[in-house]
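step 3/5: co-fold with zinc ion
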Amino acid sequence: MLLINCPYCGPRPEAEFANGGQAHIARPADPMSLTDDEWAAYLYMRDNTKGLHHERWRHANGCGRFFNASRDTTTDVIKRTYRMGERPEAEHQGAKP
Amino acid sequence: MTGTYRVRRGDVAESRNAVHFTFDGKSYQGLAGDTLASALIANGVHLVGRSFKYHRPRGFVSAGSEEPNALVGVGATQSRYTPNLLATQVEIYDGLVAESQNRWPSLETDAGFLNEYFSAFLPAGFYYKTFMWPRTAWKKLYEPVIRRMAGLGKAPAEPDADRYTQVFAHCDVLIVGAGPAGLAAALEASNSDATVILCDEQAEMGGSLLSDRSASIDGMQAADWARAALDELRKRPNVKLMSRTTAFGWYPHNFVGLNERVTDHLSNPATNQPRERLWQVRAKEVVLAAGAIERPLVFTDNDRPGIMLAGAARTYVNRYGVVPGKQVVVFTACDSAYRAALDLKAAGARIQVIVDLRKSVSGYWVDKARAEGIKVRSDSIVRGTSGWLRVKSAQISNAQGGDAETVACDLILMSGGFTPSVHLFSQSRGKLSYSEELRAYVPGESVERERSVGACKGLFALESVIESGAKGGRDAAAKAGFPPHGERSYAVSAQSVGADAFIGSVMTDHQAEKRAWVDFQNDVTAKDVRLATREGFRSIEHVKRYTTTGMATDQGKLSNMNALGVVSKQIDVAVPKVGLTTFRPPYTPTTFGSFAGQSRGDLFDPVRKTSIHAWAEAQGARFEDVGVWKRAWYFPQVGEDMHAAVARECKATRESVGIFDASTLGKIEIVGKDAAEFMNRMYTNAWTKLEPGRLRYGVMLREDGFIMDDGVVGRMATDRFHVTTTTGGAARVLSMMEDYLQTEWPDLEVWLTSTTEQWSVIALQGPNARKVLEPLVDGIDLSADAMPHMSVREGRICGVPTRLFRVSFTGELGFEVNVPAGYGRAVWEAIFAAGKPYGITPYGTETMHVLRAEKGYIIVGQETDGTVTPDDAGLGWAVGKAKRDFVGKRSLSRPALVREDRKQLVGLLTTDPKVVLEEGAQIVLDPTHPIPVPMIGHITSSYWSATLNRSIALALVRGGRSRMGEELSIPMPDGVIKAKVVDSILFDPKGERLNA
Ligand SMILES: [Zn+2]
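step 4/5: write tokens
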């Protein structure tokens, strides 16, 4: 069970959290102006990273807040957790600014 | 008499209480502190099991948790019976009842040994080869026979009477293993402010020190030093000692599973004690001091009772005070077996000969053996043994072959060196590296915050074991943030046994490897492994699966390295290139009880009940599970079946008034300046113009355009919505709302609160609903003009504040009375009493389903399955097409979602009105079409409608709305059912009753 550092509550066991998929995929401001392909890419296309991956977590059975975590998918080491709206560190790979 | 093989334990003169137990129905006496294995050996019993495949007689190979043969069933009653325990770990107590397994009719005369004579037909992969054909024979013949013959223990016939608990724990330093390295680590780590947990799988802590009578530490005998160290640790408040506790699994981020056996060793455990505790430990730093496991040697007939690991014999003599044999042949590839031979000799056994694989032998232990008159043969092997139920002799020859000498014996000790226990390290994803010197894998680079010390790191000399343990303990405490207050020194006096080792088969004659066992528990021989490589299996992962070597409950603790050795030699590829099988938890078999903990019976899953539940129960309601909710399903009266009860409930509701507990509906209070804007974005509907006091049916999509949930929403004020969701979807909907609010639109001023548990919801439906309610309500005008369909008012009912909805899920005049949950039962009963003159009838979810289906109202999850759009479900009217955006809007115009031939919701009426279709049945156009028949849809809801006096159904059908009047076919096992496509609203299509 991972130990996840909620930016609001501190370290808590994984059982308190729900994974929310890849981070930094902003919902388009005007979806109707997008082509079908662009919209499909937003809906379905996700990275399958081997290595550092930025992903959303929700402290579902805690404070309820969403936040981001940078997790190495090969080791499960979580390098950093940070609040929504904050950017991942530059050294981290795979971020989509 | 406590057994003819009893000797003085170590150098300690002591008195141990007698303990009485039975094995296979026979009474024996052992001494306190014995394992079942040591007590049986004390009584001269070595035959304890039959092998898995060939039913060969088997005895104790080891003295610990690596034991492959001595599996026993323990327990006097079925409710306290545990199969497949290791006799080497079971502690005896007065009244213990144990039995052997996998034998019939008895251990001594087992019918299955016939397998032995058919062994030519049971080679590697025999399951795959032999039982392929004919297919029908598998179920009737092969499987039952294999199951009976190739058995482990029998599962108990009654539920487990014991209790199991689970505990979370945190510590700065967790030390796994309380041998010399673990003890040193604990002494050092706890000489700081760090909290330390030291666990060990055995009853007594001390590990190999307890079996060592030649070494001394700080001037004390090894075992005495261990006990003194434990006394010191026990006094430290920051240390927790846990014996009988196996660290069975490593999970990410230094999360280690420990299984503590609390009562298994007790004759009369206190009733408040659980049998086992599952400890889930989060440790800042971990010290692995798991030790090493001795390797057997692979030679012909190396599996007879009385052939055991040299170190195990040493443990039996020195620690338990039993000598496993009186005439001993030792077969070894390393010095440690000499040390064992000397200890057995000191206990009175005769050492016939030490047979050493190594070309030349020398050093302290060899010299000492020779000095004591023990014959040593170097460059030699044991190439065969005799004896059926117990070994009788060994055939000894030069390693290269030649004439064999037969030496009588009742015990053969073997040692191929030691394999470090890297299981937990490997589970932690640490990288292993192969040591040519040790012929074993040792820990390489760590991934988690842990370090290996002592024998599990490949260190075998006591001095370096203790030194590495001490260093590891200090390092762990410091890294956890608690630098130790000092260092202590350890005066170790011990003669090294070196690190020589051997893997693979010692046999040069391949034919003889037919009975040279690699894996005792799964009955795999060197020949089987060789055969697998000849048949093209080169990776050890494939050899393992094909031969099943290493796949028994011992997970190859004794066999994996020897199997690797055989493969490596056969295909002439270096061991690391052949690979290594993956180590997986649990380290040793762990009970289901431990994992289940308290989650059994009523506590297996939480149950949610409404405040009206007990009333329904008293009325004799039948309940159904909806998620974790218990919902009243129907209310049968005397003599009624479900069909009759539902027909009566439907009729009563349509003709007068029915009352229904809708409290399980999900409820979310959405409040804030931007609440309407938020609703606009989350739901397909338009909310801006909805006036306070009005209700609207809302549809929520996922971003991919498919229906996610629905529910009636009340606007309580300009900045406040009372949202209802489906019973099962409440948490999902709230979570999705939070997601958008927190991550996409944090600028919106909106607050979301789950109020599901706060409101009881009483639905009152039927033409007389208003008449029943009116006298109970204060401050609300219920008349049709003042309170039309789809409106909400606040006031009081029976003096209790209420949000009163005028809403209908039945097609009748209806109200849903929301009251604070604490008043739910009282208000329900008041309404029920007021309804008596009108024959008020309680109804359950089944009647609710029928009534809504008659009206063509969908149920999310029944009419929808995650691929249904609002238009498919006939809800196009609920989509605010003028809205610029809402979740899922863009998807609704994707090409696949606007195709004409999408499945659409329609009604279906069977040609024979008495026939009720089966939900889920497939719909076709032409049932005579050759298989596969193209399917054009399926039945989503189907009921007997008492109102319409016929069957009704809803279905999703390709292009369904353009098929009105068409006759479709539903092929069923006993014939094709014909049905006509009709509109989905089958009752009161104009809604006159609703608006009454
Ligand atoms: Zn939190």
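step 5/5: annotate
The helical segments of chain A are 36-44.
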